[in-house]
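[retry 2/3] Tol-Pal system protein TolQ: previous attempt timed out, resubmitting with same input.
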Amino acid sequence: MNDSMSIPHLIMSASTVVQLVMLLLTVGSILSWIVIFQRTFVMRRARKTHQAFEERFWSGIDLNELYRETPSEQETQGAEHVFRSGFREFNRLLPKTRSPQAILDGVQRSMRVAWSREEERLSLHLVFLATVASASPYIGLFGTVWGIMGSFQSISMTQQATLATVAPWIAEALIATAMGLFAAIPAVIFYNRLSAESNRLLGKYEDFAEEFHSILHRNLQGRADSGPA
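[retry 2/3] Tol-Pal system protein TolQ: success.
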């Protein structure tokens, strides 16, 4: 390939607008890959943590003992966070009211807040991936249009359409298009994948909250049945 038509040379000799477009797409691509690796690690860790906690929860361990074993609320995550929030509220309300419904409503509200925080934690930065995925092709297209406009201006100035006249402009336009796709394709693939994984985990947390709520309901019912007549 002629050195004047090599990709590095075309990038360095491109117009300022197209260079800014390429720089923006490069930065967006780098940041999106950072988010992809970081979010993938978070999802993998959340999946393993949830599996370990559920095995411990359904092993028959006493709930008070499990609550004492869990770390502080700032250190817990996932279903463990939902459990700790709900059981803490259960223990707080139990000596204060005789209404099982009031206790269960308080527990449900507390678990809903914990679930919302987990939703925020799992979806962190996914909006950025969606933005890169949707905006990059259009940013690249802007660079393409600018390059095509430059080729027409070059033709009008030389009064003849030769390959040497238009090739650099067309090449930089196509490079801008390619960079837009290079940034967008991984972002959209991993956004869909990470969003699906986040929704699966949140669904598991919600299922656990419902099951835990039922356990506490049976616990309160048992206390009421065994109480004084």
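[retry 2/3] Tol-Pal system protein TolQ: DSSP finds seven helices and no strands in the chain.
[retry 2/3] clearing retry counter.
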